[in-house]
Amino acid sequence: MRTAKQLKAAIVDRRASKGPRRKRTRPEPRQYTVADLARARDRVEAAERRIDNDRTNNPNRGRAGLERAQLELHVIESQLRLRLPTR
Questions:
Q1: What string of pLDDT tens digits covers the 87 residues of the chain?
Q2: Mapping DSSP to helix (H, G, I), strand (E, B) and coil, where does residue 9 land?
Q3: CA distance 63 to 45
Q4: pTM over the 0.85 mark
């Protein structure tokens, strides 16, 4: 059996080997490309097709997927508009 001092020393050693504790830094925002824009447009079109082809009686079916795709497309368009200069 280990004594209390030995246990405490082992814990301190393990904590020291991990390095100092630091504040968590936020990740940088994603840098979108024109390819991402095309992919997002395709995603919106696919979601719209899914809603149009749905034959159930639920008018809200697939709506969340479409709204998510539209939001992502809007974010990508906004970021590219800010980054890329217009002619």
A1: 678 787 787 777 776 666 677 788 888 888 999 999 999 999 999 999 999 998 888 888 889 999 999 999 999 999 999 887 765
A2: helix
A3: 13
A4: no
19: left (phi over 0), alpha (psi -120 to 50) or beta: left
Lookup: tokens for 63: 């709506």
Phi first, then psi, for residue 62 (nearest 5°) are 85, 0
Rounded Cα distance between 48 and 36, Å, is 18
Sign of CA dihedral 37, 43, 44, 45: positive
**DSSP label of 24:** P
Residue 65 has phi, psi (to 5 degrees) of: -65, -40
